[in-house]
Amino acid sequence: MASYLEHMALRVKDLDWHLEFFKEVLGMDVRMTNQKEAPNRQVWLYGGLQLIEDLSFDGPEGRCAHLGIMTENQKEVLDKAYARNVKELPQGHNWFQVSDGLCIEVIQVKENGVQEYLDIDPWL
């Protein structure tokens, strides 16, 4: 079984500034949005970033909201995780928190998706 990081969710105080920065500087366009109004806006960018607007965020601690992990076998991953006494989160059974507070979302990948991703050579 294999897995990979599909996205990392970060809290940001000024969502519009961050959207412009990632688009203009790094060419990372919006892939999806939750269509909510401030202060509950969330935006997913191509390239694995999810930005969560949090007007009370003053950083730097607490910026990471969660890790979204794609896996070949969601059930097996969840069985192994819950056997280690992780805490289920309100978002659903595929969301949990490990002992030090890190939150993880486990997502089932379509067939061969993990291997196709892992076969990409980032240095070429």
From TrEMBL:
Segments crossing the lipid bilayer: none
InterPro entries on file: Glyas_Bleomycin-R_OHBP_Dase, VOC_core
Keywords per UniProt: Dioxygenase, Oxidoreductase
Record GO terms (molecular function): dioxygenase activity
CDD domains for the chain: VOC
Domain VOC: from-to ranges: 4-124
SUPFAM superfamilies in alphabetical order: Glyoxalase/Bleomycin resistance protein/Dihydroxybiphenyl dioxygenase
Protein name as catalogued: Glyoxalase/bleomycin resistance protein/dioxygenase
Species this chain originates from: Clostridium saccharoperbutylacetonicum N1-4(HMT)
